[in-house]
Amino acid sequence: SGILMSQPAADTRPARAADVAALDPGRLWAEFAPPLRRFVARRAPAGVDADDLVQDVFVRVIRHLGSLRGT
To answer: For the chain, N or C: smaller number of CB within 10 Å?
Structure first.
């Protein structure tokens, strides 16, 4: 009989400086901007510039990298 093991709770400690440093903004942009732009373009109201919205999202992400929590 198998017992299902639950997943450990997410780590809620602030991310270590080394973890945050590994989150290179250029790499994040290259990996996530194209799919995010497609998502926004499909769902944004008419007249909303998807490129501007994606750029605003990435500016916020980069500003808050230091406050990310580990998972």
So the answer is: N
Would you say 10 and 71 are in contact if contact means Cβ atoms under 8 Å apart?
Answer: yes
Whole-model pTM: value is 0.60
- Match 């998502």 to its residue by tokens: 39
Q: Which residues of 43-53 are buried (b: 16+ CB within 10 A; e: fewer)?
A: eeeeeeebeee
Helix (H, G, I), strand (E, B), or coil: what is residue 26? helix
How far is CA 14 from its chain centroid?
Answer: 16
Question: How confident is the model over 29-42, as pLDDT tens digits?
Answer: 999 999 999 999 99
* Number of Cα atoms under 13 Å in the Cβ half of residue 11: 8
Q: How far is CA 47 from the centre of its chain?
A: 25
**Closest listed residue to residue 37, CA positions, set 47, 24, 49:** 49
